């Protein structure tokens, strides 16, 4: 059988980093900060996780350090876009470039290797009931984010800040504070995403190892309309496309066709959802 | 004197100068941190890239960087960000190499045809991204980027199977026939490609400053709603600018295969990161034509000089990539850049629509 439980399991493993990053992106989107620096934050998370796990021997400290480092890194976006009112798109692009340069530079200065750092002694995250602990955490995070955004006063204020900052400010809600909070939260989530990628999915660091996953997360935010559950479905779609790609490769399809599949599937999904939305709004007006 | 002093002060206070200076200072801190002498290192960057040994290499790298910078600056001038440069570059390269290998025409004609094929390949693919934006409502930023990956996969497939050089262990095409190449100047590595890219820069400058199209482009970049009010058709403009952008990216791809190594080797066009360096240069110059040329030259110097810095001081050349990104971080934070993503226009449009919705 082609669509069996193995496929579902590998899809779920593939989607964790994307889901965590996309959740961060969704929170930012809700707060009115367009965050396309997810890729860079994630890459910083990957590198910090591997370095910390290597030097302390504890993958858990690696996870913690990754979350903190990526949150610190996300301050570039918070300060640049919120305080200095710079352009978030340009900042995001710059953060992604900076992360590639910085991690490659540090890889060579800290480990003295180029390309990939890989050692059997590098401790990775184990598994709990078949999944990485961070995979379980990511599902919990979706639930928490969904409840917070729709039911809690914080979520309400965050959305208010995103939709009309002036109105939020007149009610005594500081837009800047909530925007900083959202960007930092996305930093923490991207750090976890990076830790999952570098200590969960594989146990190594290689240059630019995020390989576009942060961008896919940006698309997942768009596809899932910045709703936690929507983002989960969008990430699931991508995970399925990736897992199905691996399976098709086993059946003799060239690797390049399956490499391209997730991007094409995502693009088609975007076509369909925006077309549907257009028809809907067209019917209303 | 009275005119030069304020001019000098303006330069010193300009965000571009500030960003470059700040990046160099942070770079110096990195250098001190790794135990190197910043002055020696920066000197090595300059002598390595501008000295007699390095200038050829800087101009060769500069050809690709400037080409990609122009490709990305042209849509950027109208506030559009094309993130699919890699895909357009690679398809241009593969189209050029296919024509170069299989065209029955004499070598000089084949070369011309290959350049045109590369430009057409890039242009069509970029136009596809524009159509996704215009017809299907997928933002250009996303559609261009998402399309970039399958293009890379397609090229990778082609050079591994149908176009693969028989017997070779590398994923590469056969070497182009003799004469199917852009002529080089003397014994240097600098080729006619540089002239082609420079011509593109001149053309961009003229169009930007002297024509209606250029005026409309700048107006759209400054204020999209104003230009729409003034009658600029956004869809058509997006399509045209993206096609030109893709054509230039495709040209860079064609130049990349019609010069050394005279074949398409999987990954060789995208590995040096010309697309991102080009985007950085275009952003630094706010897409102004002359500024884009200068910024491209600056980044080519950094990229080539980075190698000799690594040889002299043992500091990894990746540092130059860090410097490049820091320049843009500072610049983006300091400038209130006038272009806006489309999304930020939308709430206003919607709020205008809302009363009608309620009324209906």
UniProtKB/TrEMBL annotation, chain A:
Residues spanning the membrane: 6-26, 33-55, 61-82, 89-111, 215-240, 260-275
Keyword Kinase included in the entry's annotation: no
One Pfam family from the record: BPD_transp_2
Annotated coiled-coil segments of the chain: none
Alphabetized UniProt keyword annotations: Cell membrane, Membrane, Transmembrane, Transmembrane helix
A molecular function GO annotation: transmembrane transporter activity
InterPro entries (alphabetical): ABC_transp_permease (IPR001851)
Domain of life: Bacteria
Keyword Cell membrane carried by entry: yes
Membrane topology: Multi-pass membrane protein
GO cellular component, one term: plasma membrane
Subcellular locations according to the entry: Cell membrane
Protein name: ABC transporter permease
UniProtKB/TrEMBL annotation, chain B:
Pfam family, one: BPD_transp_2
Protein's cellular compartments: Cell membrane
CC terms in the record's Gene Ontology section: plasma membrane
GO molecular function: transmembrane transporter activity
Keywords tagged on the record: Cell membrane, Membrane, Transmembrane, Transmembrane helix
Transmembrane regions listed in the UniProt entry: 12-34, 54-76, 88-105, 111-131, 138-159, 179-207, 241-262, 282-307
Record membrane topology: Multi-pass membrane protein
InterPro entries, alphabetized: ABC_transp_permease
Keyword Cell membrane annotated: yes
The protein's name in its UniProt record: ABC transporter permease
Originating organism: Streptomyces triticagri
């Amino acid at each position: 059988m082609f669509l069996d439980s193995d496929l579902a399991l590998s899809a779920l493993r593939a989607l964790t980093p994307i889901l965590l990053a996309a959740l961060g992106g969704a929170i930012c989107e809700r707060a009115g900060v367009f965050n396309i620096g997810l890729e860079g934050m994630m890459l910083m998370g990957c590198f910090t996780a591997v370095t910390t796990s290597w030097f302390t021997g504890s993958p858990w400290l690696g996870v913690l350090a990754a979350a903190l480092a990526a949150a610190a890194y996300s301050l570039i976006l918070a300060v640049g876009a919120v305080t200095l009112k710079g352009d978030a798109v340009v900042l995001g692009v710059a953060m992604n470039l900076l992360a590639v340069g910085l991690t490659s530079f540090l890889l060579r200065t800290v480990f003295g290797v180029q390309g990939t750092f890989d050692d059997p002694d590098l401790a990775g995250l184990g598994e709990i009931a078949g999944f990485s602990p961070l995979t379980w955490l990511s599902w919990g995070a979706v639930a928490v984010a969904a409840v917070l955004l729709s039911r809690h006063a914080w979520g309400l204020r965050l959305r208010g800040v995103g939709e009309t900052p002036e109105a939020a400010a007149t009610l005594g809600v500081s837009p800047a504070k909530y925007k900083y909070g959202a960007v930092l939260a996305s930093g923490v989530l991207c750090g976890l995403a990076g830790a999952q990628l570098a200590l969960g999915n594989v146990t190594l660091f290689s240059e630019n190892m995020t390989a576009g996953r942060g961008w896919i997360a940006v698309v997942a935010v768009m596809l899932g309309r910045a709703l936690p559950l929507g983002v989960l479905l969008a990430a699931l779609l991508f995970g399925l496309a990736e897992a199905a790609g691996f399976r098709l490769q086993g059946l003799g399809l060239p690797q390049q066709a399956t490499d391209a599949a997730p991007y094409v599937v995502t693009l088609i999904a975007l076509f369909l959802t925006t077309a549907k939305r257009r028809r809907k709004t067209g019917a209303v007006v | 004197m009275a005119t030069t002093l304020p001019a000098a002060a303006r330069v010193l206070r300009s965000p571009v100068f500030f960003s470059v200076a700040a990046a160099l200072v942070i770079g110096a801190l990195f250098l001190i941190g790794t135990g190197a002498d910043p002055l020696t290192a920066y000197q090595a960057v300059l002598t390595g890239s501008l000295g007699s040994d390095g200038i050829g290499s800087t101009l060769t790298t500069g050809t690709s960087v400037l080409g990609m910078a122009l490709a990305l600056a042209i849509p950027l001038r109208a506030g559009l960000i094309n993130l699919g440069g890699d895909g357009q570059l690679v398809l241009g390269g593969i189209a050029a190499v296919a024509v170069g290998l299989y065209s029955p025409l004499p070598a000089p004609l084949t070369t011309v045809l290959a350049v045109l094929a590369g430009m057409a390949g890039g242009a069509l693919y970029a136009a596809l991204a524009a159509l996704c934006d215009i017809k299907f409502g997928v933002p250009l930023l996303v559609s261009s980027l998402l399309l970039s990956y399958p293009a890379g996969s397609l090229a990778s497939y082609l050079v591994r199977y149908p176009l693969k050089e028989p017997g070779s262990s590398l994923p590469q095409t056969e070497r182009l026939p003799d004469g199917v190449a852009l002529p080089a100047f003397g014994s240097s590595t600098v080729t006619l490609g540089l002239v082609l890219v420079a011509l593109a820069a001149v053309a961009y400058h003229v169009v930007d400053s002297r024509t209606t199209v250029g005026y409309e482009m700048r107006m759209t970049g400054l204020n999209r709603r104003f230009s729409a009010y003034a009658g600029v058709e956004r869809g058509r403009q997006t399509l045209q600018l993206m096609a030109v952008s893709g054509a230039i990216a495709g040209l860079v791809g064609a130049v990349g295969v019609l010069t050394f190594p005279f074949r398409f080797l999987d990954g060789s066009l995208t590995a040096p990161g010309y697309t991102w360096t080009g985007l950085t240069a275009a952003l630094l110059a706010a897409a102004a034509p002359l500024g884009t040329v200068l910024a491209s030259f600056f980044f080519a110097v950094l990229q080539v000089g980075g190698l000799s810095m690594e040889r002299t001081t043992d500091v990894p050349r990746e540092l130059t990539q860090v410097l490049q990104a820091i320049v843009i971080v500072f610049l983006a934070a300091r400038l209130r850049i006038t272009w806006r993503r489309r999304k930020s226009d939308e709430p206003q449009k919607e709020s205008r629509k809302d009363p009608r919705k309620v009324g209906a």
